[in-house]
Inverse folding.
């Protein structure tokens, strides 16, 4: 008998914040391998801070992050920051941005080789950006910018993908397209934690969710945690859940 | 009557002009390459400050009878380090830290220099540059340090690229961001020392910023930007020395002004092309909206 597989991502009693003001207050949750998990909460609930702390970009005041039961290994964590955090006037092409996802796997002084180029190219194909590979990033639309950053995260070939607001400002067809790619990735055994404030999208397409508002209100399989009391506590107001043709919608009454 | 060809050839029959051309081309090449990062990271003020700070080291070396370049280099590196540390601790805003440290260092240089009454002649060559007085030993030194700077830019290409483009992602990928940023400051410091004698402290920032800004407008990638910047730097050196030779004006000022003119031309060209591209979407028979140019 083999030991049970450790959780892909486990966070225990995580506290952190800025300038003495806490943003995360004892965050605790765990996600299994192969999950497509939504990280849901209102603005200022600490979604980005949580992702940054898992990545080691923000120092925890207290608590622990475990990746596959061990201390986080950067090479197992892929990341897509919010597009607002990126300098879009910088002279780089779409392909060069995707190739940057490989940099963490190369040592100092080593240049990306043929294999790295193939991986970056495949990542661009996956998000439907291969035909724009030679464009300067300045020329991209908002949706293309997001897809480029997702391709960079995919090129990291990490086991866990942490994506910060990948759907913001995307048209519905593009958003659906991306969701299908995320489901494919989860089916391949990758674990995705996707920060979003689009509750309906999580309700219809994700299998797990973490409800966050400075602390974790609830986490687990969607059918267990998508309840009105959880939503009320997360959003600090009453939200109605409407079921229609097998789909779930959240709305204010 | 000399023909045009003879007029073009004439300056380079003089050895001091040959040396001037070599020195300004070396300085312009290195400054254009490093200047790309200065422009992309919005460090133009720093690119002005570090050359000024070298003056304290140059003056100290002059008083002590040491090597002026070595003195300048040490002062520039110390300043870069100090600015980096002050900015990183979050004690001061970055440009405030730059302002305090560089004015202090420059004033220290003037203070030291004023102890000697003869300082005007020798030291002011560093302030305003005197590329016509560059000797072969200067050129060898510039070539050596310049080659080292360019080699570092080449070797750490991917690190410098991602730290300049997206420092957050760089950190997430495990790139040592602080070390790379410090290294970049050191590269700017070494570049300042190389360019000192060619254009002088006051104008080094122009060699760093103007060609790189031209490159940013015209190129799609960092490599392309750097190639354009180096080309602009080289063309400015050559044309500037012609202007200086035939109009009998300061070579460093002429080099910088040629670079400025190339930038202005590129800017105008880009604007015109953008306007033309914007109108291409109009149907052929449709009336042109708005006033005609």
């Amino acid at each position: 008998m083999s030991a049970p597989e450790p959780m892909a991502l486990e966070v225990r009693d995580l506290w952190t914040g800025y300038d003495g003001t806490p943003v995360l207050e004892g965050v605790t949750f765990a996600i299994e391998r192969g999950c497509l998990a939504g990280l849901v909460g209102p603005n200022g609930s600490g979604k980005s801070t949580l992702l940054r702390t898992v990545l080691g970009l923000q120092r925890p005041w207290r608590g622990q992050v475990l990746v596959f039961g061990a201390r986080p290994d950067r090479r197992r964590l892929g990341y897509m920051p919010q597009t607002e955090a990126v300098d879009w006037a910088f002279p780089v092409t779409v392909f060069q941005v995707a190739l940057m996802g490989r940099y963490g796997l190369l040592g100092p002084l080593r240049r990306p080789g043929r294999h790295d180029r193939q991986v970056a190219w495949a990542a661009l194909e996956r998000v439907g950006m291969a035909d724009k590979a030679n464009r300067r990033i300045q020329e991209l639309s908002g949706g293309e910018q997001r897809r480029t950053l997702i391709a960079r995260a995919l090129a990291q070939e990490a086991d866990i993908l942490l994506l910060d607001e990948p759907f913001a400002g995307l048209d519905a067809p593009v958003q659906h397209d991306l969701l299908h790619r995320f489901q494919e990735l989860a089916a391949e055994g990758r674990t995705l934690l996707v920060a979003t404030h689009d509750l309906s999208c999580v309700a219809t397409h994700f299998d797990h969710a973490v409800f966050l508002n400075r602390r974790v209100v609830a986490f687990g399989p969607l059918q267990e945690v998508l309840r009105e009391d959880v939503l009320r506590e997360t959003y600090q107001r009453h939200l109605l859940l409407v079921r229609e043709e097998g789909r779930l919608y959240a709305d204010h009454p | 009557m000399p023909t045009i060809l003879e007029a073009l050839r004439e300056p380079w029959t003089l050895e001091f002009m040959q040396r001037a051309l070599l020195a300004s081309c070396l300085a312009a090449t290195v400054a254009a390459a490093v200047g790309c990062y200065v422009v992309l990271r919005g460090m133009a003020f720093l690119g002005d400050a570090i050359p000024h700070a070298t003056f304290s080291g140059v003056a100290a070396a002059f008083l002590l009878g040491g090597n002026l370049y070595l003195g300048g280099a040490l002062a520039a590196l110390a300043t870069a380090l100090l600015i980096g540390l002050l900015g990183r601790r979050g004690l001061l805003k970055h440009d405030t830290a730059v302002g305090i440290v560089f004015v202090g260092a420059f004033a220290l240089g003037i203070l030291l220099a004023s102890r000697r009454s003869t300082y005007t002649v020798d030291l002011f060559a560093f302030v305003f540059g005197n590329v016509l007085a560059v000797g072969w030993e200067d050129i060898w030194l510039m070539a050596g340090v310049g080659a080292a700077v360019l080699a570092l830019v080449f070797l750490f290409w991917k690190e410098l690229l991602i730290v300049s483009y997206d420092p957050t992602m760089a950190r997430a990928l495990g790139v040592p961001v602080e070390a790379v940023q410090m290294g970049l400051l050191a590269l700017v410091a070494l570049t300042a020392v190389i360019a000192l004698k060619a254009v002088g402290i006051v104008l080094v920032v122009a060699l760093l910023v103007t060609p790189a800004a031209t490159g940013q407008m015209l190129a799609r990638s960092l490599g392309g930007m750097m190639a354009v910047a180096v080309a602009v730097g080289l063309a400015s050196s050559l044309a500037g020395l012609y202007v200086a030779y035939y109009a009998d004006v300061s070579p460093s000022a002429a080099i910088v002004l040629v670079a400025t003119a190339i930038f202005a031309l590129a800017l105008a060209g880009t604007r015109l092309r953008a306007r033309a591209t914007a109108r291409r979407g109009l149907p052929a028979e449709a009336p042109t909206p708005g006033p005609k140019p």
